[in-house]
Amino acid sequence: MATSFEPVLLRNVGVKDSHTLKVYRARGGYEGLQKALALPPGDVVARVKDSGLRGRGGAGFPTGVKWTFLPKDHPGPIYMCINADESEPGTFNNRILMEDDPHQVIEGIIISSYATKAATAYLYIRVEYGLSFRRLQSAIDECYEAGLLGKNIQGKQGFHLDIHLHRGAGAYICGEETGLIESLEGKRAWPRIKPPFPAIEGVFRKPTIVNNIETMACVTHILDRGVDWFRSIGVPPDPSNPRDIGSLGPKLYCVSGHVNKPGCYEAPLGITVRELIDDFAGGVWKGRKAKACIPGGLSMGFLTEAEFDTRLDFNELQKKGCLGLGTAAVIVIDDQTSMIDVLYNSCRFFSHESCGQCTPCREGTAWMTKILARMRRGQGELSDLDQLAEIGGGIGLTPGTTICGLADGAAWPVKNAMQKFRPEFEEWIRSGRRSEDPLGELLAHH
What we know:
Elements lengths: L20 H6 L4 H7 L3 H11 L11 H6 L10 E6 L8 H8 L1 H15 L3 E7 L3 H16 L16 E7 L8 H8 L23 E5 H13 L1 H5 L2 E2 L11 E2 L1 E8 L5 E6 L4 H8 L9 E5 L8 E2 L24 E6 L4 H15 L5 H18 L6 H12 L11 H15 L1 H10 L6 H8 L1
Helix pairs in contact: 2-6, 2-9, 3-6, 5-6, 5-7, 6-9, 12-13, 12-15, 13-14, 13-15, 14-15
């Protein structure tokens, strides 16, 4: 699979000046837009829907279906919001697209805005992405000069679009679509209670579509190469299950942690964890063996090494007890790394990033972090493991206790660790082991 697949999303990466309009057009750019403008907007929506494209931001909701939720014949403005916050730990595929091929993303935004009749698009980007911001702004400026943005785009009467870049302040919660909207409006990024969903009441309480950067890049190629091409890639729907819509198209996988060649790789949806690590990332580093991996960003939970033949798609990972595919950011953990340390880092992150609006998330993430910190000091008790499992099972959208899914993301690694690595935790507690903490030792010394 590593040798036969032709990269599409990353095909311009590494090409000199790939971020410029001149090079992008010379390599076939904006042909998808021309094909889209030759169709009525409803037909563009139908093509994206028929392609089976599922959102690449984490949840995997069908993109074309989301577009159909907009009110029909809405008299007021419709907005397009592009989520470039990319705050999930281990994830950097959006950054590569924005830095090296911004026009691929912008073409997808223009097509999507035409399909949904949006005249204004807000591209929400995290403030740490300095080069991405500059490359996108330069590409947007080029598009205005070339008549690809503004009034009557490419001679299409009545199709107007402005794209505005908006820099967020670097909070994890801004990756949640309603938290992003609140931040975009200049308020504290507290997720909203849904319904109403953004397609009905989003930015400025107007109908809004929120899509991810990689999703926009996929829209570009669906219009350029066609629905059949897109559906020929990935895992097709299960004909015996009418509710299964498959996991179709190319996907950008991030690989980091204990591998020889960390990086962003493109492959069809459905490649296995083992193939990704061995065929793309050069195997586990230092001649060691893998103990576990995080298969889709920190919030998805853990797979054991014995589960590495699991497909990385929207359905298979849930059968292994993970939350889902998420952002497809694989973090590999070798056999010399303590799962107690890994889980502590996870809980500490989510406790810090909880917006505090929902009590179960605010208190639960802090409680789990304190229990694990005590365990790392050699003061843990076996009853702590049951306590962690109970807290992990009691917070989040799944039990219905929080407004957004951050608590689910915080709880899933804890639930997985208690199920899959409990003997390691028990041995740690019984032996009274302590974790090495260079930062803590440094602070204690001073």
